[in-house]
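To the team - pyridoxal-5'-phosphate complex, inputs and output below.
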Amino acid sequence: MDAREAALRQAYDHALRWLASLSDRPVPARASAEEIVRALGAELPDDPSPPADVVDLLATACEPGLTAFPSGRFYGFVIGGTEPAALAADWLVSAWDQNCVMRAVSPAYTAAEDIAGAWLLDLLGLPGGSAVGYTTGATMANFTCLAAGRDAVLRRAGWNVARDGLAGAPAVHVVVGEERHMAIDVALRYLGLGHPDAVGADDQGRIDPDALRRSLAAAGECPTIVVLQAGEIHSGAFDPFAETIRAAREAGAWVHIDGAFGLWAAVSPPYAHLTAGCADADSWATDAHKTLNVPYDCGIAIVRDPATVRAAMGVHGDYLIQHEQGDPSDKVPELSRRGRGFTVWAALRSLGRSGVADLVERLCRHASAFAAGIAAIDGATVLNDVVFTQVCAEFGSDERTERVLSRLLDDGTTWISGSTWRGRRVMRISVSNWSTTDEDVTRALDAIRRAAATA
Ligand SMILES: *Cc1c(COP(=O)(O)O)cnc(C)c1O
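Output:
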């Protein structure tokens, strides 16, 4: 066995041990970063080490400091686990080491990216022929889409951002709902668009169409971008797309939808109504590393008119071999990057159309089970309408909610994050892992009941 094969076998054995440990290990990490630094050793050695020994040291030293994010009982933030086919494909992506910048150089990558892109548009009910680009996550997918939108609305106003920059350009009016994800603000900041006009939202975090119309009317005839949301991170709520997109269209705005985890409702007949009207937007950002459960890092930027994203993101270096159909790098900020389209292809190919729908429906069913279980706990209240995968609850007072959360973390059966929503501390449950079972939900609910009984 050569050194490379020995290292890969070490990694394989450690990976299987880690995955097998997920059903029973405590979900929170058991060691601090300082302890892991000691176990890894802070000194850079002078001499080389055999690769297999390095992999063994890494895995052994880090294991106690790993949080079981891929566990079926991790419900913090909005994350997602890793579908088996996508995980295995991701290993191949590393071994294949394709640089996915140009169409002409890796035909295999081009094929997988194109097929996965067409499947995504079909599943998500978005216009065929839209550009589908693979980014590091939804933050960069939002950035990519909003860059295309910024340049397009300014072009319509007679301003060429690519040539003349933003200094002296007409102001771009950006309207968002007050409960949009902060990733939108980050993207707007990167794009030199500053603070958006954040208009009111209802009690579930859905943008208020009247407030949107008022903002559009007040801005008058100027380049405008409207950002809507499919899946609010606390309530899971979806903006009323048909009405808001109509209003935005009348104002000549570019319409972008942040659907990092929620856009996937479109794949399931019982939930597709949540995204009704979505397809009329100009661009959509989503994550494959959340609801679709591919490994990090994989976001997806979809733009209806490929020419707009190509104008914003395309590169025109003499040393690149440019393809008339456009290159993968024309749709995202990066040049050199790994083959994210391979893992998306593998997840979709493995699940099939019905498997993606089942996945979404299972996540939603577990969320409803959480809501029912928590509502039955003394003093606990579920605060949101549980329409998708998110549940927000409180336990009588901010202080008690905090105590329940902290006892839950000590208990270790599950990992659930706290947050502040509509002025109060809440327990926020996000069900986004394909591997969560009914038994996981039962065990997590038992843990919540235990924590609440003593808090
Ligand atoms: C997670 C999330 C983002 C940011 O996505 P990353 O993949 O973490 O960059 C943006 N918007 C919403 C609604 C999200 O849930």
